[in-house]
Specification:
This protein is of the alpha+beta class. About 35% of the residues lie in helices and about 25% in strands.
């Protein structure tokens, strides 16, 4: 949006931010919310506190204190955001998307900063990583929540954590655990997802897959080719046995000795007849800038291992290869019921671009990656306010687009010669 469009939206922005007024006990503190969000939606190139304060004509220190020192309820702001999405953007085909993003940082004081793999640069560098949960429904998408990934080196150095204002109970947790917590937090405030999806890093983590399944959350997520599973359900026995033939007998459930061993997914699709005997189905995923995006698909039931090495399933393995580059292969795994149409599974599987667009807009338009503070509370509030700004931006964009065909349109009948269609972009 250009400057004139943004200026014309000020009454709408004021009305939108008024919905968060009760999260602030003081009126003067509440006015800084408008300054901060207005700065994020402005045409200021670098949207750090200093630049936004100067653009708004307020003291830089005042806006810095608003973010890291003033008393206001940032958790209540996040909860209000979730309530707005719950009440005004609910959809029967809603999709939650787990992903992470990173920001490179030069110093050593930003909470969580260290040398680690940064997706923003594609290499190991000095920076921070935050885990996020996005929401997509029809032609609308936004970020719901986000949390800092605290590396082990920080968690073990409590004096450093205290200097950065990191709470004592905030310790290292795997990103997979953070992701599940974000899902739980959203669901606790009434934001439910028909589906969840994620990339192969999260899809290769049994804790994520089994955690979502235990929560009765349907998912279709990408996983790694070295993930192991069975294409036939192995037999399980609870007959007593003695380890190494000695000691007291046990009744621990286990797969029987003659059961097949689980194998890597890449082996299953190349050697198991349930895949090799299938013909590739051609599906048009959506229209890209250079024309239709088409993938070829095979799918079959699989059983995956739980934490006790016992089979769980039947789940679905969906093998996809790029029709224009057959060397590009993706493996998707889903706990959906067997009768779920493949069109729906593919729609969810290929929806990750929605969170990538959220990150693109939140960084390019709002300034998600422009935080330069040294306090955890400031970073936490910045993540929440950036999500608020993006929510307003997404709502405005949806209104400006008007009524258009939904992005989650399911396929009609097609000839076997033509690619089946799952979505129109």
């Amino acid at each position: 949006m250009d400057a004139s469009t943004i200026a014309g939206l000020k009454p709408d922005l004021d009305a939108f931010l008024e919905r968060f007024a009760d999260c602030f006990t003081r009126r003067d503190t509440r006015t800084h919310l408008t300054t901060y969000v207005g700065g994020q939606l402005s045409n200021v190139k670098r949207k750090n506190v200093e630049a936004m304060a100067l653009e708004a004509g307020v003291p830089v220190r005042t806006l810095q204190e608003f973010l890291s020192q003033h008393r206001w309820d940032e958790d209540a702001v996040r909860e209000r955001l979730l309530q707005i999405v719950r009440d005004e953007h609910a959809h029967e085909h809603s999709i939650g998307i787990i992903d992470e993003t990173s920001d490179d940082k030069k110093g050593v004081k930003t909470p969580g900063v260290q040398r680690q793999h940064l997706g923003c640069s594609g290499k190991h560098d000095n920076g921070i990583v935050t885990v996020h949960l996005a929401y997509a429904a029809d032609d609308f998408h936004c970020l719901l929540d986000g949390e800092l990934f605290l590396p082990q080196s920080w968690s073990d150095d409590r004096p450093r954590c205290r200097e950065a204002g990191i709470p004592e109970d905030m310790v290292y947790r795997p990103k997979s655990e953070i992701a599940l917590e974000l899902c739980d937090r959203s669901r606790a405030h009434g934001v439910n997802f028909a589906w969840l999806t994620f990339d192969e890093w999260y899809g290769a983590k049994p804790a994520v897959l089994h955690g979502l399944d235990a929560r009765d959350q349907s998912f279709v997520g990408e996983t790694h080719c070295r993930f192991v599973a069975w294409t036939e359900e192995p037999s399980v026995t609870s007959r007593p046995f003695r380890k190494n033939g000695r000691g007291r007998s046990r009744r621990t459930p286990r797969t029987t000795a003659n059961s097949p061993k689980p194998r890597y997914l890449e082996e299953l699709v190349h050697h198991k007849r349930v895949f090799t005997d299938q013909s590739w189905e051609t599906w048009r995923i959506k229209d890209g800038e250079k024309g239709p995006i088409v993938w070829e698909v095979k799918h079959a039931s699989i059983w995956v291992r739980d934490e006790n090495d016992l089979p769980v399933g039947p789940w679905r393995l969906i093998l996809c290869r790029n029709a224009t580059n057959v060397a590009e292969v993706k493996y998707f795994i889903s706990n959906a019921p067997p009768e779920t149409p493949l069109s729906i599974l593919l729609l969810v599987a290929f929806s990750r671009w929605r969170v990538e667009r959220c990150f693109q807009d939140d960084k390019g338009e709002v300034g998600l990656d422009h935080y330069e503070g040294r306090r955890y509370i400031g970073l936490k509030r910045h993540l929440i306010l950036s999500a608020v700004s993006l929510l307003f931006l997404s709502r405005v964009n949806q209104q400006l687009r008007g009524e258009k065909p939904g992005l989650d349109r399911l396929p009609g009948s097609h000839s076997d010669v033509r690619p089946r269609t799952i979505a129109l972009a």
